[in-house]
Write a structure and sequence with these properties.
Structural class: mainly alpha
Distance between the termini: 163 Å
Oligomer: single chain
Number of strands: 5
Helix content: 55-70%
Radius of gyration: 53 Å
């Protein structure tokens, strides 16, 4: 009787031991699994945080560089108020002649406008035929817009000078084969009415040798008068 009870107690004791060992193993495996999972999650969140931090750092660096460039430009402008500006002088037939500062890249038209526009005495031929209103301005340039009176004076001086030159040529006995009259040509040695007509009909001449090449004169006649004629 007692032996059977002892055997039963022994069996239960062994079962408890086996259950305890099994529970311990399962608990250990569970804890190991929890640890591994926690470590993996920790690494995942840590990597994401580092990537986010690098991205923010890169963006901040770009912003800092941009801000630095802007500050540099601002400081340059503050130290040199004329930064990006040009200075140009304009005179003559404008309403407000003087020296003006304009933005770099401005054109003559901008300068005319800032000077109040053309005066009522401006030479319109000069504006339409000579002045290029779209021309870019350069720092330190000088422009002068002539009045109609000034243009007339210049033209009169040129005409007077030309008349003086023509008179001097006639005094020296040199006759222009391109502009002389028939009577003036006939005053030359060996030139009669027919030769004079031939010279006139074969105009213009770009060289004296053309007188012979075009058949207006013979070689002999040309040699006799070549010192007395001009183009």
């Amino acid at each position: 009787m007692f032996d059977e009870s002892s055997d039963i107690s022994l069996v239960f004791s062994q079962i408890r031991k086996m259950l305890s060992v099994s529970l311990i193993i399962q608990a250990t495996i569970f804890l190991v699994g929890i640890s591994i999972s926690s470590f993996g999650l920790f690494q995942l969140f840590n990597n994401e945080a580092q990537a986010s931090q690098k991205e923010n750092s890169s963006g901040s660096g770009t912003d800092l560089l941009s801000n630095s460039n802007e500050l540099e430009i601002v400081e340059t402008c503050e130290k040199n108020p004329e930064f990006g500006r040009i200075t140009v002088d304009i005179g003559g037939a404008v309403k407000n002649p003087g020296i003006y500062q304009l933005d770099s890249g401005s054109r003559i038209n901008d300068l005319i406008n800032i000077a109040g526009g053309f005066s009522n005495y401006v030479d319109k031929y000069y504006i339409n035929k000579v002045l290029n209103l779209s021309q870019l301005l350069n720092d330190g340039e000088k422009f002068y817009i002539p009045t109609i009176e000034e243009s007339i004076e210049v033209q009169e001086k040129l005409t007077s000078q030309q008349s003086t030159n023509d008179s001097a040529g006639n005094t020296l006995g040199v006759i222009s084969v391109n502009s002389a009259t028939k009577e003036e040509l006939m005053s030359l040695t060996g030139i009669g009415e027919k030769r004079a007509d031939d010279i006139v009909s074969n105009r213009p001449y770009d060289s004296l040798n053309k007188l012979v090449e075009k058949g207006a004169l013979t070689e002999a006649i040309f040699e006799n008068i070549k010192s007395a004629v001009s183009l």
